[in-house]
Design a protein that fits this description.
heterodimer; A: 155 residues; alpha+beta; 4 helices; 4 strands; B: 377 residues; Ubiquitin Conjugating Enzyme; five-stranded antiparallel β-sheet; four-stranded antiparallel β-sheet; 9 helices; 32% helix; 25% strand; flat; UBQ-conjugating_enzyme/RWD (chain A); UBQ-conjugating_AS (chain A); EC 2.3.2.23 (chain A); nucleotide-binding (chain A)
Chain lengths: 155, 377
């Protein structure tokens, strides 16, 4: 019962004042699948990209965190080949840090920040994390290459 | 009168002797290379004990050694102490020279500032801080647009005297010069640069005729606009300040299939972009739309995700006609919750139940919070 009221509120707030470079909306007017997009943060190898994501809202939301994955391929230590994201905020405590006061908007902002500041200490892609630490130039080159290839389908 | 007393008076005139029933005390100041040290010395036969103060802390080791030695009289002790303090004391800064230098800089800064005001009598607003370290100037351009610049004064003797640290232009190049007027002229030349003026014209036009949702209050520095195209669909358009007439970078944010459609429209039309035409009408042609939706009339207050008094779990005031009934006891948090919501959250964390209460962490501030079992559960 909290779920519906809350999602409507989150959507109306978002529509009036969206955060920079972030968009989300329910897919096909059902409130269990959302689609989202975010523009890569400035001063990062992802800055030219537009990344698509899918958000599944559990029945028990906001008591359980939503699951979020990237639909666009991303070269990043904390994002795997299937678009799964390693972020403590989308895991339930005690392993994670989800709290019902975080909304969808907050999570997307956190993901945007994760793109800007990868966390090589808790990697999902060990080899990318190693590259990020030891050869940042090469990491940035590849991340940019993937971004140009997969996340820039407009002109 | 013991022999040392005259010596004490001559050598350490700021030290006084005080006799109590128990022991002798010497207190006052000694001056070493311009620094004053507060002294409080207690005598017990041939041993002297110095009370430690903040100034003396760094000499503590040596002073401790002194307390183990025996001295004939306080003058002998103070001589030894002076030796320690003057050896360790860092060479005293010759403050006088620096003060003279700074005054001349202050004079120059004030002179430059007055000259600037006289030379540019049409400056809209200007302000120099009391410490003469920063100068803020607001100027109007021909279109009556305001442009502000913040200039720092550099007192370090290295580098130029004046430096632009902040200005609301898109290309924030750092500029510095020894003359305020020359520096200000550089800034004005950038403001009046035809490319930038053209960009301001275009952006003003967009702000006037489109529904811009980001930035919230655009400044002259922002070169991007997020414009509403349709319900739930917007586009982020980023201009190149050096070349506003050419096709700007466009990204659509919205349902993935709508974005796909618009990307197709753009890739069909972008070759027809005419850099000699009005940017806004070229955008309309590019997107194959009739016009941009206008901003809705009623300007609502900024909506927050959670308003005061609303439950910060379900983000609403009424839940099954109930109002929030738990408040976080942490005074700097003070968030409201419905007991139903808070209970459900704490239970999902396996928090500790104790009779009719459940205890856990406030989801907002993480401090301890209690919640009684809701009646409806």
């Amino acid at each position: 019962m909290q779920r519906e009221q809350r999602l409507k509120r989150e959507l109306s707030k978002f529509e009036k004042k969206p955060p920079k470079g972030i968009w989300f909306s329910p897919k096909e007017d059902k409130l269990n699948i959302f689609e989202a997009s975010l523009i890569g943060p400035e001063n990062s190898p992802y800055s030219d990209g537009l990344f698509k994501l899918e958000i599944l809202i559990p029945d028990n939301y906001p008591f359980l965190p939503p699951s979020i994955k990237f639909l666009t391929k991303v070269y990043h230590p904390n994002i795997d080949d299937n678009g799964r994201i390693c972020l403590d905020l989308i895991k339930m405590p005690p392993a994670g840090n989800w709290k019902p006061t975080i909304g969808i908007e907050g999570l997307l902002i956190a993901i945007q920040m994760l793109l800007q500041n990868p966390n090589p200490n808790d990697p999902l892609m060990a080899d990318i994390a190693e590259e990020f630490v030891n050869d940042k130039k090469e990491f940035e080159r590849k991340a940019k290459l993937w971004c140009d290839k997969y996340a820039c389908d407009n002109v | 009168m013991p022999a040392y007393e005259l010596d004490l008076l001559l050598k350490y005139p700021m030290i006084m002797q005080r006799c109590t029933t128990k022991d002798e005390e010497y207190f006052g100041y000694i001056k070493i290379k311009g620094d004053h040290f507060k002294i409080r010395l207690t005598r017990n036969m041939k041993r002297f004990k110095l009370e430690m103060t903040e100034d003396l802390e760094k000499y503590e080791k040596d002073i401790k050694k002194l307390s183990k030695l025996s001295f004939m009289d306080p003058v002998e002790y103070l001589d030894k102490l002076t030796e320690i303090l003057s050896a360790e004391s860092p060479p005293h800064k010759e403050t006088d020279d620096i003060i003279i230098d700074n005054t001349s800089i202050y004079r120059k800064v004030l002179r430059e500032y007055t000259e600037l005001r006289q030379f540019y009598f049409n400056i809209h607003k200007s302000f120099i801080s009391k410490d003469l370290k920063t100068i803020d100037i607001v100027q109007l351009d021909e279109q009556m647009r305001q442009h502000s610049v913040k200039i720092d004064v550099n007192y370090s003797q290295y580098g130029k005297l004046f430096k632009i640290v902040e200005c609301n232009l898109p290309l924030n190049e750092i500029d510095e010069d020894d003359s305020l007027i020359v520096l200000y002229e550089k800034f004005m030349n950038r403001v009046d640069c035809p490319k930038l003026q053209l960009m301001f014209d275009v952006l003003d036009e967009i702000d006037k005729s489109c529904w811009v949702i980001d930035p919230d209050r655009p400044t002259r520095r922002d070169v991007y606009r997020r414009i509403v195209l349709d319900r739930n669909l917007s586009m982020v358009i980023t201009f190149n300040p050096n070349d506003i007439r050419h096709l700007p970078q466009i990204k659509f944010l919205g349902p993935h299939n709508a974005v796909k459609k618009y990307n197709e429209v753009v890739s069909r039309n972008f070759l027809n972009w005419n850099p000699n035409e009005d940017v806004l009408s070229e955008l309309v042609k590019l997107l194959e739309i009739d016009n941009f939706p206008a901003k809705p009339e009623h300007s609502e207050e900024d909506e927050l995700l959670v308003n005061d008094g609303e439950c910060c779990i379900c983000f609403s005031l009424r839940l099954n006609e109930q109002l929030p009934d738990v408040v976080c006891p942490n005074a700097s948090c003070n968030q409201f919750f419905h007991s139903q919501c808070l209970y459900k959250w704490l239970r999902s964390l396996n928090s500790r139940k104790c009779f009719y209460e459940i205890n856990g962490q406030c989801p907002n501030c993480e401090k301890v919070i209690h919640c009684s079992l809701p009646t409806s559960e």
